[in-house]
Hints:
The chain is mainly α. Helices cover about 60% and strands about 10% of the residues. The chain has six helices and three strands, in the order ααβααββαα. A three-stranded antiparallel β-sheet has the order 1-3-2.
Amino acid sequence: MASEPSTLDLLTALAEPTRHRIVxxxxxxxxxxxxxxxxxGVPQPTVSRHLRVLxxxxxxxxxxxxxxxxxxxxxxxxxLARVLAAVLDASQQDPSLVGERADAMARSRMHARxxxxxxxxxxxx
Length: 125
């Protein structure tokens, strides 16, 4: 995406519940599609489709790592950053979203630890 999203683009992207949940998880930590799939309990094609919409809206960025892609939240510039922050803060009033964010953080820590403990071929370091 060449330019910053408009307020309407940002709110439209976040209005869909699955995309809101994805952004909530990515606010905690960078994640792979398989981790988002496990946290959200939705099929991989659904997660990928929503990630594409979020990427097009300028809310996520992707980093290829071997045959996988790591997704991160991309915070827009002010004043849209405040809108996103307000949505994420409000999300913490919903117990299910709080639980998903905690799960995202735990899964991210687990895959980070696994990368440190194994070499590039999957053997113990």
